[in-house]
Amino acid sequence: MTHEHDDNAPLDKVVRGCNTHCKIKKEETMINRRDLALSTLAVSALALSAPALAASADEEAVAKKVEAFRLAQIAADPKALGALCWDDLSYSHSSGKVEDKATFITNATDGKSKFLSIDYKDPTIKVVGPAAIVRFHWVAEQEMAADGKKVPTNLHILMNWQKQGDEWKLLSRAATKL
Amino acid sequence: MTLNRDHAATTDHEAVAKNVEAFRLAQIAADPKALGELCADDLSYSHSNGFLEDKAAFIANATDGKTEFLSIAYKDPTIKIVGPAAVVRFHWMAEMMTGGQKVANSLHILMNWLKQGDEWKLLSRSATKL
Lengths: 178, 130
Fold this sequence. Notes:
The complex is a heterodimer. Chain A is built from three helices and six strands. By secondary structure, chain A is of the alpha+beta class. Chain A has a domain at 54-177: Nuclear Transport Factor 2, Chain: A (Roll), CATH 3.10.450. In chain A, helix 1 runs antiparallel to helix 2. The longest helix of chain A is centred in the N-terminal third of the chain and has 50 residues, at 26-75. By secondary structure, chain B is of the alpha+beta class. Chain B has helices spanning 12-29, 32-38, 55-62, and strands spanning 39-46, 52-53, 67-82, 85-98, 101-116, 119-129. Chain B is globular.
């Protein structure tokens, strides 16, 4: 094979048995490499887009449910909360108190306190197969029915959502005081 | 007729319990390889002050020698299997040397494990002070 030898050129290609730096005809290379790059990009885009689209569809679905949960907590709506949670729900508070589904819903809707506001700030959602890891900064104000006292809470929340058939439902939740 | 009576299949519950115990030991040993094998690549690990780590950060911080665990107990653990997920909770009690001081802490832990292939791996963890 004949090729130009340019000792100052960067090492483009090592031709077998050739110990000198080789410079492949630049124009030819540019066209070939560009075509290759474009077709690789197209193929990669296709290959990546399907799972990427699926992942973001799941993320959107989870985001919708997380928002619905936030609203259901404010509304103290037992039916809505029930529909959003697995029967195997494991829900814990920043005190470490753990509730099952029935207890959580009862306590969240017994009227002993009322949420004036709940914010889920800076939420992140990561879908991993059938699971979704959701974290956010909870900022809320409750009013105690007994004495009207206002109680603010400021927590880091971890929610674990799991797909049940086509529906994402809350499986576990933990809170830690900030 | 039951074949292989002596070779009962490991239930998911047993497999998770085994990995939870392995995790506890790996934390005490500050063993990055063992911790690496027990955690999903998408691990999301948080501490009782809200500090959040991904897999690389968790392993780096758990094994950099700045803290040495004298003991870690996972008291009263509960494991619930829900399809490919396992919800694990326990009362963490540990003693550690950090900054030349002996420190003890008591936390409620929530671990979420996910079955990936045949292996159960830790996907997320959070802690709250007791």
